[in-house]
Write a structure and sequence with these properties.
52% of the residues lie in helices and 18% in strands. Helix 2 runs antiparallel to helix 3, helix 5 packs across helix 6 and helix 11 packs parallel to helix 13.
Length: 544
Amino acid sequence: MAKAISAAAIIGLALATAWLVYATGGIRYSWSHLIYVPVVLGGFAFGIWGGILAGIVGGLALGPLMPINTFTGEMQTFLNWVYRLIFLCINGALVGALSQLFRRYLYKLQWLHDHHEDTDLLNLSGLTLALGEMIRRTPDERRLIVSVIQLNGLLDIQNTFGSEFGARLLHQIVDRTKQIVPPESLLALIQNDRLAIVVDSDESHQSTLDRMREIFNESYVVDGVPIHVKASIGLAHFPEHARTAEDLLQKASVAMHWADLSKSSSSIYDLANDHTNRENLSLLGALPGAIARGELQVWYQAKIMLATDEVVGSEALLRWNHPQRGLVPPGLFIPQVEETMLIDRVTRSVIATAFADVANWRAAGYKQSVSVNLSVHNLRDHTLLDAIDLNASRCGLTANDIELEITESAVMMDLDHGIRVISQLRERGYRVAIDDFGVGHSSLAYLQKMHASALKIDQVFIKTLATDPNNQKIVRAILLLARSLGLKTVAEGIEDYASLLLLREWGCDYGQGYAIHRPAPQAEFLQFLESQAGEQPIESRPSI
């Protein structure tokens, strides 16, 4: 209907132009050039043939019946109006051809806006539009199941075998997916390594998951190379979890991330997990300001010599005193900080504060040492060792007053570099403890090469030591190993006196945990030190 109206309007415009030309004196006057307007409009609206037909109409309208001059009655020759008609048709065809090319280009741009070029699948933008339309057509009593599938390791595969190999693998994954999901479903590639599937189904989410897992049950063969692809799948339901396309995809992505973090193949959206992720991200964003405002504080947990109950030092622990949320649990921000460059600023701040506090305690008559944790990022900071030296010198501390704790997993991430950093620290006289020992994957040969001064037994073995025979065997084996290598041992996470007594009996050198002392700010820790003079053995007094 719209095309018919447009065609009639163009023909009417051509005829109106012919009347105007006749009324103003004929072909010889400039008004005749207005005939190009309907010709151009015809080509633009209807393409090549539309431009040709508009040229014919315009040419005939100014054809044999239209005089050159209406005042003298001079008429056109045959060739005159025929040449004009042909010229108008050529112009209309050219405009129509350009219009068609332009329309194809616009269509291609629109298609690329909504599709992934290599796989022809919908992309995130296209899926959002299609899912929104699907939601509008779906009554509340029916369920839409949105799945987001992370193809784990696809980037590693591309880096190993090349991008073309990765593209062929992706095509095989897409082809297998198309065979498994219902034909009326939506299938999209929302990132280069992430698929999304929308199923309009009354089946249970478990049935949907079982079908998704079929995509990855068998290996793929690309260029004769068998490749097994693992996936993390997140699910969200309409209308249970969200009512808009954007929210459904976001919640399915949250579930997918949770499945990846928990090392599970799949997960269904859970509000608690989403709240945690949002909170972590908001906290991470607020951290630079918190550092500038001095909201980060260094607390201390006492470390005792188990043989004598003497407090010989402490571990510096980071705490965040948020102005609105109060004390933020370290597990909510420290793991995130360790994955960013902020950890370098934070570690330097902890070192400066801890060294200054130890200097103050020593001035008050308490000979204390301090342990500071170093992260993977810190090991890559080539200026950190000089910063440690500078702060120690400024506070009047010797290298032996300071212990640097490095997790076993951090060392093993880049073993050669980790061993080199530990050696440099030991050459400068600093003590180095391998933290969280027992939960990593270092071998005995590597442990010998590390040249550490102490092993810190992970609290996962200590918390249930008194009641778990298996943990008892592991801890005794670690203690025996450490003694054979000439290393001191520290047990962290001592929460009951029965565990403390066992560790003392087995010859563990040092201990820390809630049964001994809870982490406290500097002023409270100083009060704790003052209270220790003449105190009774720890196992016979209440915990601090």
